[in-house]
Amino acid sequence: MNKEYKTIREVVGPLMLVDRVENVKYDELVEIKQANGEKRIGRVLEIDGDAALVQLFETSQGLKIFDAKATFQGHGIELGVSRDMLGRVFDGMGRPKDDGPDIIAEKRLDINGAPMNPVARDYPAEFIQTGISAIDGLNTLVRGQKLPVFSGSGLPHAQLAAQIARQAKVLDNSEDFAVVFAAIGITFEEADYFIKDFRKTGAIERAVLFMNYANDPAVERIATPRMAITCAEYLAYELGMHVLVILTDITNYAESLREVSAARKEVPGRRGYPGYLYTDLASLYERAGRIRGKKGSITQIPILSMPEDDITHPIPDLTGYITEGQIILSRDLNMRGIRPPIDVLPSLSRLKDKGIGDGKTREDHADTMNQLFSAYARGKDAKELAVILGDAALSDIDKIYAQFAEAFEERYINQGFQTNRSIEETLRIGWELLSILPKSELKRVKETYIEKYLPSPRENNEEA
Questions:
Q1: pTM of the model
Q2: ATPase F1/V1/A1 complex alpha/beta subunit nucleotide-binding domain location, by residue (predicted)?
Q3: Residue 429 is part of which domain span?
């Protein structure tokens, strides 16, 4: 039986100090019970000799320390998991918030997870279709990958997150696929949007939602992504499902980490964030992947809004070091009505070459991707030159490239948040755009692919 301690010495804000404790562990769960029967939950932040520093999950207002008892539970925060979690909505601590019954747990898992042996990791190599051309065609997502989305304040990353969650799938219909969606520090309006969108489209049937609101305690915000990833690990490694984990917004998570660090009076690092921010983010991101001998996989799309659109800010900067690429949203494209406003040139998926090609997407995918990148980059340069020197300064071929860049943004990137494109449709649109260029300019595509896939001008006119 767990000991009860009546040695609570001090409470300052969300922090509580308990004296003369024995055999207490870091991150251990604590229950605080008052004389009137009211209960509060906290976790151990720090241990110094026989003193334990506890952080409360809720406000300390009204807590009377002279008659309160602290009971250390002997374990960290746990999540009860079951297949029945699919189709349900939970709060940031894993409690049902959809008026449904409590989950009958098949097992209880520590939300901090177990270390994954690097030798047991399998290399990501299978394609995941998001239905978004700018990702599928040019910055392909691969099973087991960590591919973050870098956004900015006011950009439609919430709509993009909902679209990916709604449309993502593996091409092999025999494989089980699920989405675990964690909303971190969002408003009631955003939460309502996500829940309604999932229910309206039927995507909720294969999804598990964790909702943490902006007015919830900071420590709950830190637990929410770990709850989601723990659920994903159960679905992937116990039930053999391919799971896509979407975490939005990681910036809110990091702000809570900074808040807790400041409350503990730790020495701040860059911009006031704790010095262990890199390690902490890695403890989330590195739980994605595939394990040899296990059928399932975990793929992560963390979404973060860059403060002041600064990509050198500690949160996107450190995220970029840990993950395998990034999808960047453009404020300029958004202002011009391009939806989703994905800036494909600075975006990157470092594992895209492993998930495309014959037997995965299509044989011509790599060549068309390289040619589209090259042509769009040259077209953007031509348009910038025209702004400075005027159209008269452009050569005939530069004018064609400028025309290609405009068509590429309008037809390839600008598909809206409701359009779901198959990889075949994305590749077809890519070839139609390449037909704008003279054949002599298609230097990155094999001649056999040009003969097989390049539409004739007549076919293009009929399509238009």
A1: 0.93
A2: 131-349
A3: 364-453
How far the first Cα of the chain sits from its last, in Å, is: 75
Under-70 pLDDT residues of the chain: 1, 457-464
Q: What is the pLDDT of residue 152?
A: 95
Q: At what angle do helices 250-263 and 218-233 cross, to 10 degrees?
A: 130
Alpha carbon distances (Å) from 116 to 43, 137, 227: 24, 31, 17
- Token pair 């395998």 in the structure block, residue: 324
Determine the pLDDT at residue 145: 96
Question: How many CB atoms are closer than 10 A to CB 340?
Answer: 26
pLDDT at position 460, please?
A: 56
CATH code of the domain covering residue 60: 2.40.30.20
Closest listed residue to residue 244, CA positions, set 192, 343, 176: 176
Same domain for 260 and 196: yes
Q: Residue 75: which of 31, 25, 113 has the closest Cα?
A: 25
Burial annotation 296-312 (CB, 10 A radius, 16+ → b, else e): bbbbbbbbbbbbebeee
